[in-house]
Specification:
Blueprint lengths: L20 E6 L2 E6 H4 L25 E2 L13 E2 L2 E6 L2 E4 L6 E13 L2 E13 L6 E4 L12 E4 L1 H4 E4 L4 E7 L2 E7 L4 E3 L5 E14 L1
Antiparallel strand pairs: 1-2, 3-4, 5-7, 6-9, 7-8, 8-15, 9-13, 10-12, 11-15, 12-13, 13-14
Length: about 210
Amino acid sequence: MADLKISALTGASTPLAGTEVLPIVQSGSTVKVSVANLTAGRAVATAGGSFTDNIIQSTALKGINFTANTNAPGMTSELLNWYEEGTWTPTLSFGGATTGITYGTQFGQYTRIGRQVTLVAKVVLTSKGSATGLAAITGLPFNAAANVNSMTVVDPASSFSGIIVGGATLLSIATDTLYFLQQSLTDRTTMSESNFGNTADFRFVIVYTV
């Protein structure tokens, strides 16, 4: 085949498959290398830039590595490898049962950045049903990490309606369940079906670690 100028060659299809080969000189010999092997295992350095499309993570648990930063003494990871947002369904139970509980509104949203999860929820009951026992919320999108007992204080005046409390309302997380607590000046006690009216209305935001 006669030699051709590059400008005279037929254009390649895009995107490239990675199996295409190019000639290179290696250790004084001309050899071939695939397009996929040109950057395999090589770090790509850049002084910055912009993108017109998404940056797609091709391998799970790989992400942006911040090891160039000076870390705090307790550092365990400098890799940002997770972002996710979506909805979840907060489900109320008493003593682990949901017998007869019905909802006017049962809605939740979540955002996960790295190991931190932020939950938002709004629940409006039309009936609290007939179950009895410890009040709890299940349906969390991610389980809390071992030994995490994240707790948030909820203002009952603006966030809780139709729920009888003897102080500040607390939400405590244990693995995959949120528990309702009430905090008085001297004590912290669990909440049960007796604290909830048939039209109880509550909303909350809680942040925890997975």
